[in-house]
């Protein structure tokens, strides 16, 4: 888009009104205009906006041209100028509001709702880790009982005891059986609840992250606003220049040129600042979301690994309980039963220690994730 005012046809002097602001290819705004034209080529919405601006600008200038031919400006012409500028400003406002609704609407409320859920879920995870440690304490007590059975059996063998006379061994097996399952129904219920919450949280975070990624890829929306503001200001200068030329008042022309050149010159910087703030805000949100994603994912992995180990431990416990039942029901098979339990007791102990390490790791990583998210929030807020 460009414009050029010319001397009146009846001009006979070198003191004719000069062009207040050069709008051609080599003007102060040439780079901005080329950028605007490139944006129009890429953006259908901006093309529509540009068509509207051009139509109104041409209409105004045509109206003013008629006034220039008779060296006067009618009230109708001035009304056309005023109305056109208001219309163009309305077009800019409309575009800004549409983008504002997309960019800023409910942004922080949704984000901090997710943050609150994350911290609540992490507290539940820490509660689960504490519950697991209590279960492992009961499992160790069970391990102590079964080891004492082994000791009793060895002592009775040394004393030449056989069959139903394995009194201490049989009592130990009975005590082992009556200690019960170290993992209660409440523990399994807590596990299912926490795991479901974390899975749901991860899904919400993935959806949110996808939306943020989409916004980062759609930053041309804000570029469209920037271009709209620039061209509206540019057209305002052009029209006011024509008006000034029409009324042949050089002092007014120079005043307008000086006053309007500053706003247009600062429009680019302001738009770039707005664009940068938007991009920084989105990236800041992305960092917070990503840190929560990582923390939630790690918790799910830890809990899944814990679940697998618990299942292995439960299988070992169930197997040893069946062997104890067999020995208690058939006292002649005590020696065979003890030999089978000996094969399983070492693995039983290893699984308990592995679970203890995993519980500690899950707790430490959950606390670390909370710290990282807090740091990201502080950085994003600042």
From TrEMBL:
InterPro entries on file: DUF677
Chief location: membrane
Tagged with keyword Transmembrane: yes
Keywords associated with the record: Membrane, Transmembrane, Transmembrane helix
A cellular component annotation (GO) from this entry: membrane
Tree of life domain: Eukaryota
Keyword GTP-binding: no
Subcellular location: Membrane
A matching Pfam family: DUF677
Sequence intervals crossing the membrane: 225-247, 253-271
Cited PANTHER family: UPF0496 PLANT-LIKE PROTEIN (PTHR31113:SF32), UPF0496 PROTEIN 3-RELATED (PTHR31113)
UniProt family annotation: Belongs to the UPF0496 family.
Protein name, entry field: UPF0496 protein At2g18630-like
Organism: Cicer arietinum
Gene from which this protein is expressed: LOC101489807
């Amino acid at each position: 888009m460009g414009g050029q005012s010319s001397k009146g046809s009846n001009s006979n002097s070198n003191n004719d009104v000069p062009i207040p602001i050069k709008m051609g290819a080599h003007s102060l705004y040439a780079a901005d205009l080329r950028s605007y034209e490139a944006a129009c080529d890429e953006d259908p919405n901006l093309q529509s906006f540009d068509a509207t601006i051009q139509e109104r600008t041409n209409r105004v200038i045509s109206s003013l041209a008629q006034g220039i031919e008779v060296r006067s400006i009618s009230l109708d012409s001035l009304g056309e100028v005023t109305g056109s500028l208001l219309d163009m400003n309305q077009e800019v406002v409309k575009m800004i509001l549409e983008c504002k609704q997309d960019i800023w609407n409910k942004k922080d409320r949704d984000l901090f709702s997710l943050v609150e859920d994350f911290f609540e879920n992490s507290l539940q995870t820490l509660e689960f880790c504490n519950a697991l440690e209590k279960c492992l304490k009961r499992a160790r007590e069970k391990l102590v009982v079964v080891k004492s059975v082994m000791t009793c059996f060895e002592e009775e063998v040394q004393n030449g005891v056989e069959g139903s006379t394995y009194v201490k061994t049989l009592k130990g097996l009975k005590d082992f059986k009556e200690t019960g399952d170290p993992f209660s129904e409440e523990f399994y219920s807590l596990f299912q609840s926490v795991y479901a919450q974390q899975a749901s949280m991860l899904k919400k975070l993935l959806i949110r992250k996808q939306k943020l990624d989409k916004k980062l890829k759609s930053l041309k929306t804000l570029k469209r606003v920037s271009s709209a503001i620039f061209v509206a200001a540019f057209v305002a200068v052009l029209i006011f220049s024509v008006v000034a030329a029409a009324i042949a008042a050089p002092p007014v022309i120079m005043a307008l040129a000086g006053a309007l050149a500053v706003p247009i010159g600062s429009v680019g910087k302001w738009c770039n600042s707005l664009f940068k703030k938007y991009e920084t805000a989105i990236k800041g949100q992305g960092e917070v979301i990503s840190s929560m994603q990582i923390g939630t994912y790690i918790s799910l992995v830890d809990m899944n690994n814990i679940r697998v180990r618990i299942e292995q431990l439960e299988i070992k416990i169930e197997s040893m309980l069946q062997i104890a039942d067999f020995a208690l029901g058939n006292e002649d098979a005590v020696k065979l039963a003890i030999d089978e339990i000996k094969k399983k007791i070492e693995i039983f102990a290893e699984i308990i220690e592995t679970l203890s390490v995993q519980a500690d790791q899950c707790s430490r990583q959950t606390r670390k994730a909370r710290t990282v998210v807090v740091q990201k929030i502080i950085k994003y807020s600042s």
